[in-house]
Structure formats: structure tokens, C-alpha cells
Amino acid sequence: SGAAGPAMLPALRRCRPGPVPLPALAAALGPGPFPGLCPGWSPRAVPARGRKTRHDPPAKSKAGRVKLPPPVDPEELLVVLERYRQHRLVLSALRAEFRAEVLQKKREERLAAEDSVEELEEHRRLMAWNDEENARQRARREERLRKEEEEQKRRKLEIADKQARKMEAFLEEKEKEVLQLQEEAKNFITPENLEARIEECLDNPRNYNFAIDKDGRIVKRTVLS
Questions:
Q1: What secondary structure, in 3-state letters, does 126-158 show?
Q2: From residue 73, how far is each of 68, 79, 85, 171 by CA, in Å?
């Protein structure tokens, strides 16, 4: 501003570059915390260019200025107002849509929680029924296996009994054959009874020269000479 300009000229002249004697520079700098900068500079004494408080009077060049708002075209104003109205409508519709989605999600979560409790209860009931059904099926399976095992044992016993009876019949038949052979062995020709059997055959001759019919009857016999 115009009031602050003349007051800042000495400070600006002191900050002007150029050859400055060291004693004069040291005396001008003083006890500042940052030597080498403008003379007498410190963070507590920073010059404010054109900055005024709200209590300062206006500049002389702007004392009689009257601020007027910029001119507004009525048609453009109507267009802008209409666009703002549409913008507000779109925003309100989007907010309503988002609010409805949030409420729907909350409702679905609540229903899902209720359904999850019902589904959990239904799952527990079905699992209990499943356990009971498994126990019943296991009992039926064990009973069926027990009956099959008893049936297999009975069949094995029947087969063993049948084989035992068959072996007994076989042994009886062989025993009869042995007895029959022993009985027939009494008429066998042995070296001991050979002479006696020869004499018996000579004393009792037999004629095997004969003819028989279809029924096995002797129909013709020749006479021994």
C-alpha cells in the first residue's frame, strides 16, 4: 500500500546488493539469530507487504470506490437456476436410492439372521433324525448279518452232516465188499486145496456146451462123451 511504501524504503536500501564494508555490515546486522540476511531481520520483525488489518482505513486511491456486483444476464440466471434445481433433484434421488439400498441390506441381514437361526434349528432336527435313522439302519444291518452268519453256519453243518453220512455209507459199502470178498475167498483155489479141487472137478463134471434163447433159458445141450 501507499502508506507502507515509504516506511519500507530504508529497509530495502539496506538489503540492496553491493560492496559493504565488514565493520559496517556487522554493525548493521546486530544481534540477529540469522547473520548474513537483511540488517536487523529476525522472525519477530518480518515486513508485511500490503497486509492490513480490518481496522485500518482504506487507501486514499480507493477511498471513494463503490463496489458493485457484476451484471447478471436474466436468461443465463434462469438456466443456472434450472440446472441447480435439476442437480438438487438428482442428488436427492441418489440419496433416496442409496438410503433404500442401505435399508434393504439391513432388512436382508436381519432376515438372514432370523433364517440362519431357523436353518440351524432345522439342521439340528434333521441331524437328530439322521442319527436315529443311522442307528435304526445299523441295527437292521447287524441283525441281517447275524442271520446270514447263522444261515452260513447251518449250511456248513448240513454240508458236514451230508458228507459224514456219505462217508459212512461209503465205508459201509466198502465193508460189505470186504466181507463179500472174505466170503468168496473161502472158495478160492490155493496151493493147499488144489488137489482136492481137482478131484472134485473130476468127480462132478459140468457141461457148458449149451444154447440159450433171448430170455436166457437153455434150449439145447450136448451130451458129454
A1: HHHHHHHHHHHHHHHHHHHHHHHHHHHHHHHHH
A2: 15, 10, 18, 137
For the whole model, what pTM was predicted? 0.32
pLDDT in tens, 154-212: 999 999 999 999 999 999 999 999 999 888 887 788 888 888 888 888 888 887 888 88
- Does residue 26 sit within a domain? no
DSSP codes joined into one string, 164-216: HHHHHHHHHHHHHHHHHHHHHGGG---TTTHHHHHHHHHHS-----EEE-TTS
Give Cβ neighbours of residue 61 (< 8 Å, ≥ 6 apart): 2
- For the chain, the domain total comes to 1
In this structure, is residue 212 part of a structural domain? no
Q: What is the pLDDT of residues 25-54, one digit of tens each?
A: 445 444 444 444 444 445 455 545 667 888
Closest CA to 205 of 186, 184, 225, 189: 225
- Quick count: other Cβ atoms within 10 Å of Cβ 4? 14
User: How far is it, in rounded angstroms, from Cα 4 to Cα 57?
Assistant: 13
Say if 17 falls within a structural domain: no
In a domain, 92, yes or no: yes
d(CA 55, CA 53): 5
Q: How far apart are CA 207 and CA 161, in angstroms?
A: 53
Residues in the chain: 225
